[in-house]
Design brief:
By secondary structure, this protein is of the alpha+beta class. The protein has two domains: 125 residues, Regulatory protein AraC (Jelly Rolls, Sandwich), CATH 2.60.120.280; 104 residues, Orthogonal Bundle (Arc Repressor Mutant, subunit A). The protein contains nine helices and nine strands. It has a five-stranded antiparallel sheet, covered by helices on one side. Strand 4 and strand 5 form a beta hairpin. The longest helix has 19 residues.
Length: 238
């Protein structure tokens, strides 16, 4: 197995031949042209002009390309990875900050003598960007659309996971089941409406995604041990 002891980068053009392998170092893959199709950790992803990918060490992955392409690929030793980036792939949008960072990285790598210290600084900054944007798309979707009938298929698609794997991933990341998490998001909003508005219990139930008032009552009894009416009364009394 190939070993990498210090970070470096190179431009790579991928072929249409499918490869599968695993190694002790990680990759940061930045698109310059075309698209790369990659599958890892039950995720099927495309790295193209809109996306970048951080692949952690010891992660088996399969990849190939269907079109003409070129990528700037960083080889990153295991010891460089922060704890929050070491256990799963990060598939992110190539926004303005990443475009600026890609320009700096590309400029540094085009020097005749690559400066490892400068490369390391840019990589550490890239890890900081990922940490700042660590909110998962499916979690953001739940908080936006908790009042609707959220499908498991939609959430799995947002994370690029197979449906059969997504529920396991969610439980591991959030510490509760998907159903419980959605219930708690709805409960949080119901509490706010009970405290801050005069809406009827039926109106509040429907605003958080339930058709009947009885569903709201069951929600409160399950998590609070009291009814919504008692919660409202207690909140006003304080």
């Amino acid at each position: 197995m190939r070993q990498v002891y210090s970070s470096f980068a190179e431009k790579i053009c991928f072929t249409d031949v499918e490869h599968t392998h695993v190694h002790n170092f990680g990759h940061l893959i930045l698109p310059l042209q075309g698209a790369l199709i990659l599958q890892a950790e039950q995720k099927a992803m495309t790295v193209d002009h809109q996306h970048i990918l951080l692949l952690p060490p010891k992660c088996q992955h399969t990849y190939y390309a269907k079109v003409r392409n070129e990528f700037l690929v960083f080889y990153i030793p295991y010891t460089m990875f922060p704890n929050n980036c070491i256990d799963e792939t990060n598939h992110l949008e190539l926004d303005a900050r990443w475009r600026a960072l890609r320009f700096l990285m590309l400029s540094e790598c085009q020097n005749d003598k690559m400066n490892t210290a400068a490369i390391n600084q840019l990589l550490h900054y890239s890890f900081q960007l990922m940490h700042q944007n660590q909110e998962y798309p499916s979690i953001r979707y739940i908080h936006q659309y908790y009042h609707t009938n959220i499908s498991l298929e939609k959430l799995a698609t947002l994370e690029h996971y197979h449906v059969s794997y997504y529920s396991q991933w969610f439980q591991r990341k959030m510490g509760v089941s998907l159903q419980t998490y959605i219930q708690k998001v709805r409960l949080h909003e119901a509490k706010r409406l009970l405290r801050e508005t005069n809406y009827s219990l039926l109106d509040i139930a429907q605003q958080i995604g339930y058709e009947h008032q009885a569903s709201l009552t069951r929600l409160f009894k399950q998590f609070e041990g009291i009814t919504p009416s008692v919660y409202r009364h207690n909140s006003i009394s304080k």
